[in-house]
Design goal:
By secondary structure, this protein is mostly helical. The chain is built from 10 helices and no strands. It has helices at about 10-20, 25-45, 60-75, 80-125, 130-145, 145-155, 160-170, 175-185, 185-195, 205-235. The protein is globular.
Length: about 240
């Protein structure tokens, strides 16, 4: 009699899939992606390609604005500082077209980071939310997504990447996050874009007004962040 052939264990493939798709495996993938993006930024400085002199001169018109917005979004998601990108946008396209490209790029970069954090990091990190401050912040973002995002973008006290991934871990939806980002980023972004468009004339009223607005917004953001910090500390845990 022939002995039946040894069959592989039926549960191996499902177990392997569960391991590969587990929350901590996805979080590890996210960390690797972010580390790789940061390494590329440090090694190749892609934001220099968006500065005056590095942008391809043969690309012009509306197509250049759209292409710049896409490049801006990818660079912002890869931790390139937005003030640098905003200044470059103003220097390349002027105040109006530069603002449109910068706002579109900001929303795109925030959306990419939010989607990555939501898909790869939230399931692993949400169970780690402990403590009164963390739970209060999570509750604020989850219940008042649009208003919280709008406030964060209006007052530049929270780093762009931290706001994106913090929102992704919360229960906030895509729509309030993107809408709050698009509306809230306009004043500060406009100030940098105008400053970039007037960089050749640093004594012009437009440049001085935009620079003054940047200083005032940063100071106001620091005050708001300080007051919000104490309010979150005193809020009851949900």
């Amino acid at each position: 009699m022939f002995e039946p052939a040894v069959r592989p264990r039926a549960g191996f493939a499902p177990r392997r899939s569960r391991v590969l798709l587990s929350p901590w495996s996805r979080l590890t993938l996210l960390v690797c992606l972010l580390a790789g993006a940061g390494a590329v930024v440090v090694a190749y400085e892609p934001h220099r390609l968006l500065a005056d002199g590095g942008w391809p001169q043969q690309v012009g018109g509306a197509g250049a604005v759209v292409l710049f917005g896409v490049a801006y979004g990818l660079c912002a998601a890869a931790f390139v500082p937005r003030p640098v990108l905003n200044l470059a946008s103003g220097a390349l396209f002027g105040a109006q077209a530069g603002l449109a490209a910068a706002v579109a790029g900001t929303v795109l970069g925030a959306g990419v980071a939010f989607a990555l954090g939501r898909a790869l990091g939230r399931d692993a990190l949400r169970p780690l939310l402990r403590g009164r401050w963390a739970e209060a912040a999570d509750g604020q973002l989850s219940r008042h997504g649009f208003r919280s995002t709008l406030a964060i973008r209006l007052f530049p006290g929270v780093p762009f990447a931290a706001a994106n991934y913090g929102a992704a871990i919360s229960r906030m939806g895509y729509a309030p996050f993107l809408l709050g980002t698009g509306l809230g980023c306009v004043p500060n972004t406009a100030a940098y874009v105008v400053a970039g468009s007037q960089a050749a004339a640093p004594t012009s009223p437009a440049f001085l007004l935009s620079a003054g607005f940047i200083v005032v917004s940063v100071a106001a953001g620091a005050v708001v962040a300080w007051r919000k910090r104490h309010r979150l500390r005193s809020a009851p845990a949900s």
